[in-house]
From TrEMBL:
<keyword id="KW-0067">ATP-binding</keyword>
<protein>
    <submittedName>
        <fullName>IS21-like element IS21 family helper ATPase IstB</fullName>
    </submittedName>
</protein>
<dbReference type="InterPro" id="IPR027417">
    <property type="entry name" value="P-loop_NTPase"/>
</dbReference>
<feature type="domain" description="AAA+ ATPase">
    <location>
        <begin position="99"/>
        <end position="231"/>
    </location>
</feature>
<dbReference type="InterPro" id="IPR003593">
    <property type="entry name" value="AAA+_ATPase"/>
</dbReference>
<dbReference type="InterPro" id="IPR047661">
    <property type="entry name" value="IstB"/>
</dbReference>
<dbReference type="InterPro" id="IPR002611">
    <property type="entry name" value="IstB_ATP-bd"/>
</dbReference>
<keyword id="KW-0547">Nucleotide-binding</keyword>
<dbReference type="InterPro" id="IPR028350">
    <property type="entry name" value="DNAC/IstB-like"/>
</dbReference>
<dbReference type="Pfam" id="PF01695">
    <property type="entry name" value="IstB_IS21"/>
</dbReference>
<comment type="similarity">
    <text>Belongs to the IS21/IS1162 putative ATP-binding protein family.</text>
</comment>
């Protein structure tokens, strides 16, 4: 084993495999720049740290399961004037997550609710929060499956491990009574403990109707609204506008 291979192997046993992989080029760089011993020692550590952060971010983004790569940087506030960049930026210190508050985006289809939810969720992952995105119907199905296996509580606890749960498109299709009950179990577990971003096309005044005015629905709505910032989004559908442009 050469000296280089031995050093790389030592780094690997110390779990510094990124530095081990990059050792040759880091060495060449240091030699070319006549770097000091201290600066080289620092560069190795820095390289390993940056690579680890990058890996962690990639892993957490994958775990968040965003359905698409929407970013706040790509959000056009000239098109969507019922929410301002200042309002959105004010959310990005994530005080709302730390204080276990919810965000609710209400509005008709195509006005950017999902885009905003993913964009904010993405920033939250970057800031180190555990985030999970779920379409409301998928979530309900997931809970139903767990419930059938007698594992509802377990699944709810797993979901509640996230700092932020994004529930997208609640209210688009009606739910069975059992589905509403399962959802209530989840919301109840998250209440004042975790944050939710909810997007919906239903104004709260219509929610009673959507949930069939039953005694499970009212507490769900109550608990989501209780500590929440509500944003009513309006305007034209962005999709339609793009269509008519071309
Ligand atoms: P909603 O969830 O309100 O139905 P979406 O967020 O899915 O709407 O938006 C529909 C499409 O239009 C998406 O591709 C989204 O990225 C885009 N879009 C909507 N509003 C904007 C906006 N203000 N700036 C940029 N893209 C937008
Ligand atoms: Mg949507």
């Amino acid at each position: 084993m050469s000296q280089l291979e031995q050093t790389q192997s030592r780094y690997r046993s110390l779990r510094m495999s990124a530095a081990a992989d990059e050792l040759v080029s880091l060495l060449a760089q240091a030699e070319a720049n006549e770097a000091s011993y201290l600066s080289f020692a620092d560069q190795l550590a820095e390289y390993e740290m940056v690579q680890r952060q990058h890996k962690r971010l990639t892993r957490n983004l994958k775990l968040a399961a965003f359905p698409s790569e929407k970013r706040l940087e790509g959000f056009d506030y000239r098109h969507q004037s019922t929410i301002s960049k200042r309002q959105v930026n004010a959310l990005l210190d994530f005080g709302f997550i730390d204080e276990r508050n919810n965000l609710v985006f209400i509005g008709p289809p195509g006005v950017g609710k999902t885009h905003l939810a993913i964009g904010i969720g993405h920033k939250a992952v970057e800031a180190g929060y555990r985030v999970l995105f779920r379409n409301a119907l998928d979530l309900v199905e997931e809970l139903e499956l767990a419930e059938m296996k007698g594992e509802l509580k377990k699944r709810v606890n797993q979901l509640a491990k996230h700092d932020l749960l994004i529930i997208d498109e609640l209210g688009y299709l009606p739910m069975t009574r059992q589905a509403r009950f399962n959802l209530f179990q989840l919301i109840n577990s998250l209440y004042e403990y975790r944050s939710i971003i909810l997007t919906t096309n239903k104004d709260f005044t219509n929610w009673g109707e959507f949930f069939h005015d039953d005694n499970v629905a009212v507490p769900i709505i109550d608990r989501i609204i209780h500590h929440s910032h509500i944003f009513m989004l309006g305007g034209e559908s962005y999709r339609l506008k793009q269509k008519t442009k071309s």
